[in-house]
TrEMBL record:
<comment type="similarity">
    <text>Belongs to the type III secretion exporter family.</text>
</comment>
<dbReference type="InterPro" id="IPR029025">
    <property type="entry name" value="T3SS_substrate_exporter_C"/>
</dbReference>
<protein>
    <recommendedName>
        <fullName>Flagellar biosynthetic protein FlhB</fullName>
    </recommendedName>
</protein>
<keyword id="KW-0813">Transport</keyword>
<keyword id="KW-0653">Protein transport</keyword>
<comment type="function">
    <text>Required for formation of the rod structure in the basal body of the flagellar apparatus. Together with FliI and FliH, may constitute the export apparatus of flagellin.</text>
</comment>
<keyword id="KW-1006">Bacterial flagellum protein export</keyword>
<dbReference type="Pfam" id="PF01312">
    <property type="entry name" value="Bac_export_2"/>
</dbReference>
<dbReference type="InterPro" id="IPR006135">
    <property type="entry name" value="T3SS_substrate_exporter"/>
</dbReference>
Amino acid sequence: MANKKTKSAVGIKYQDGSKNAPKVVAKGFGDLAEEIIKLAEQSGVLVHEDPYLSEFLARLDLGQEIPEQLYHVIAELIAFSYVLQGKFPESWAQTHNKLSTKA
């Protein structure tokens, strides 16, 4: 019988406009991980499945900011989740208004 790896889940939170890095706000394994994912989805929180990132984040303590070496990947995930929700930075709207479709 194959050894099934226990599912893990880590929730991070970023406060809009904050100068602080996102923090670990939830983490769990097995049934608790499934509950974290279920609650996130019910609350409209986008869920990204990445076992390698989850494994790394699971080593952090609750309330701990993500380490600097993860800033880029987490920033990309946050930015992508904003776009999926139809949220765009003000600077994008300003740039878009300046673009012309004329040839």
